[in-house]
Amino acid sequence: MGRIAILADHVADQIAAGEVVERPASVVKELVENALDAGATDVTVTVTGGGRMLIRVSDDGSGMDRDDAVLALERHATSKLTDTRDLVGIGSFGFRGEALPAIGSVSRLTLETATGTGGEGTRVLVLGGRMEQVAPVARARGTTVTVERLFYNTPARRKFLRSARAETRAIHEALQALALARLDVAFRLESEGRGLLEAPRTADLSSRVAALFGRALADQLVPVDHAGLKGLVQRPADARPAGRRTFLYVNGRPFRDHFLVRAAEAGYRGAIHPGARPTLFLSLTVPGEAVDVNVHPAKLEVRFHDKYGIERAVEEAVRGAVAGVDAAVGLGAWEDGERWAGSGERVDQARAPGWTEGADAPEDLFAPLSEGAPPAPRQPLPASEVLQLHATYLLLEDADGLLIVDQHSAHERVLYERAMAELSGADAAAQRLLLPITLNLTAAELDAVEANREVLHAVGYEAAPFGGESVVLHAVPNPHRRFDAQRCFEELATDLARNRFGGVHNRIERFAATWACRAAVKAGDVLDARERAELLRRLFACTLPPHDVHGRPTIVRLPRGELERRFGRG
Ligand SMILES: Nc1ncnc2c1ncn2[C@@H]1O[C@H](COP(=O)(O)OP(=O)(O)OP(=O)(O)O)[C@@H](O)[C@H]1O
Ligand SMILES: [Mg+2]
Q1: Could you tell me which of 13, 178, 182 has the C-alpha nearest to residue 109?
Q2: CATH topology (fold) of 429-476+481-519
Q3: Whose CA is nearest to atom 19 of ligand 1?
Q4: What is the pTM of this model?
């Protein structure tokens, strides 16, 4: 007798179900997609135990008659297509006829549904893929699917589930993704009797974002609208390294695409702090034949025929949206189109204000990299009070008007010039650590750290030894009080490993620029009065105060003459 045998149907079904139903969140995704395909305007999801004990999805959609309700639980039973040609440009989420039977084969599934005629409906009960009961039930138009004891008969799958809390989070996120796809539908999520999500119908993406993630995030977004691409993206200054969200849609269907996210980030290049990751909500509209949606077992990915063209379009659209930001904050709003920001009206050395070295400007606020007195200001002027705006800009007067300084760019300039001096001369004074920090790095990062030991040492990092997987920091620099020495070191190691520093020729300069960028105070850091004064004093002691290391301005000025003209004094 041969050793090959055909698997029993229920075994084959359970194995196939693994592709569609990976975890409770996949069940929620499939059931909610079905509700949306059925034309629901109201979808309520209830879960307990992270979806392991119970998932219930109720909708007010078309419902099914008795025959369809029974058929819906058969594999390859679908009302959404009859031929593979229908797949081109398909508008529904579903098309395989797999989801309900797959879920039913690994749980106890109850389907209650009615088409709305006469308040009579059908109840179908399935256990482990076997239909146990078909009975009439009284209910209003729509469908409710209840899934209990998920994975009760597939212990391998059950073992891979995470905590109830983690599974609930995944469910929440799956529902957020669909709620962003269909603003015209109201969504609700309850877990253990607690409301987690409540999104009323709206016509406006920003309101939906506010309902799902809070007003604060919604207020940080600017619209994108360019050649088939619509959405909202985060203002550069609000982007943070952690906590970002990315939601991509093509023709209304959510999908994941790492490269497209990268392309969107490339649209920010030069406008965002390296390491910051902007939140993105982007929706593409393309002709049906330009995208294949049937390439992933759980439909999480799609394939574009012109992948690079799409990436370019996304990058351009995002850049356009981000470039509009300063218009939105009023910088470009002068009626004569004149822009005083960064257009020749930069501060020159002779007119830069200096700072009295009074008792309120102590030395150690921005700890120097080297011993000895900091350079004296070139042109002492009476100190005026320095205001901080949006925890990002410093405002001060000089004889000829108002100066606005970007604190991060300014500090970058200061650190860069110092690092260049250190790198071509004496070593930086580092702060020795009582308890050395041990870091685990990848092999490539370790190699990079080892090869660049000198430059790291020059800015104040003493790293040793290089055996094994880890590196030990015995001393670290301390350029300001919010400085995170460990994180900065990790970022530099990554940068070095990616070989972002080119040949030997510019290596030191580029390293100094990267160091300055990683180590400088960030937009959003609140500086106290003494820190503001000290930062400006050091900035104006630099050789090139008005330019940051990327060639952007650190200072813009509003000339007094301009103020006078605008207030009719001129
Ligand atoms: N909530 C619902 N309301 C009305 N009809 C539904 C609902 N859920 C499922 N159906 C019907 O049952 C059929 C089978 O659903 P199922 O999710 O298994 O497959 P599908 O949505 O067609 O394809 P896919 O497997 O890609 O999701 C659907 O084609 C639809 O006709
Ligand atoms: Mg479906």
Answers
A1: 13
A2: Ribosomal Protein S8; Chain: A, domain 1 (3.30.1370)
A3: 97
A4: 0.63
